[in-house]
Amino acid sequence: MVSEAEIALAAFGVIVVLIILASSIRIVKEYERAVIFRLGRLLGAKGPGIFFRIPIIDQFRVIDLRVITFDVPRQRLITRDNVSVDVDAVVYYRVLDPKAAVVAVENYRIATGLLAQTTLRDVLGQVELDDLLAKREDLGKRLTAILDAATDHWGIKVVTVAIRDVSLPELMQRAIAKQAEAERERRSRIVIADGEFQAAAKMTEAAAMYEKTPVALKLRELQTMQEIAREKNLIVVTTIGAGSGSDMATLIGLVKGAQKEKTKE
To answer: CB-hemisphere CA count at 13 Å for 164?
Structure first.
């Protein structure tokens, strides 16, 4: 017969086996990888799904492979033309090689964040304020390329760097506003001058046509007098096109006739 001590020992053995199995079976998600070390030596990366490890002998660290968003703290820098600005940026990156992310750097999140801050100050400090305000997309691509090359041996892939905001001092904002106002004034004067130039050109063409056809000039003069009569002007004095006294009398008669018609209306 089996004694109670043997039963208790068997039960204890079963419990130990179950505990060992429970601690040996691990599961990682689709977007995770487990980097395993056996007696301190790198064994490899496991996952996704279920994997086994030897308790006490094997140690592992789970790495997330999803895109990580890192908000770079506001950085105060001086541009190439000696303007002090505050810049906010966002960095998007992910882990491509989980083994390198664990072995090559102590903490890849902190290292990538600090490197992003340093690179942001170095690169944007070499450009002028106008380029910083107008070429954010190009500067973002440049920052992305520099960060991606610097973090490649860490197993990190920098997806993009976006410059979110550029804060200017109040004095500089007023200066930019004055510059924009002056630019608008310059454009308006150019438009007005161009309009006068075109009008002068058209008037020159019209004068040449009137010189070739004096009758057209006479008709234009009559039309002008009719327009003046509509404004209820009582006296019209003109010498244009009046070659003789009969012509002047004719013109005066036409004007008076137009005024009478205006009065009847």
So the answer is: 11
Q: Which domain holds residue 127?
A: 68-168
Same domain, 175 and 164: no
Among candidate residues 112, 140, 168, the one where a domain is terminated = 168
Query: Comparing C-alpha atoms, which of 95, 89, 93 is closest to residue 71?
Result: 89
Among 26, 44, 64, the domain-final residue is 64
pLDDT tens, the chain, 265 aa long = 557 777 777 777 778 777 777 778 888 999 999 999 998 899 989 888 888 888 888 889 999 999 999 899 888 888 888 888 999 999 999 999 999 999 999 999 999 999 999 999 999 989 988 888 888 899 999 999 999 999 999 999 999 999 988 888 777 767 777 877 888 888 888 988 898 888 888 888 888 887 777 777 777 777 777 776 666 655 555 555 545 445 555 655 655 665 566 566 5
| Total domains in the fold of the chain | 4
Question: Is there a single domain that holds both residue 161 and residue 97?
Answer: yes
- Token pair of 257 as six digits: 């006739």
What's the per-residue H, E or C state across 51-105?
A: EECCCCCEEEEEEECCCEEEEEEEEEEECCCCCEEEEEEEEEEEECCHHHHHHCC
Judge if 176 and 255 occupy the same domain: no
If asked whether residues 130 and 183 sit together in one domain, one would say no
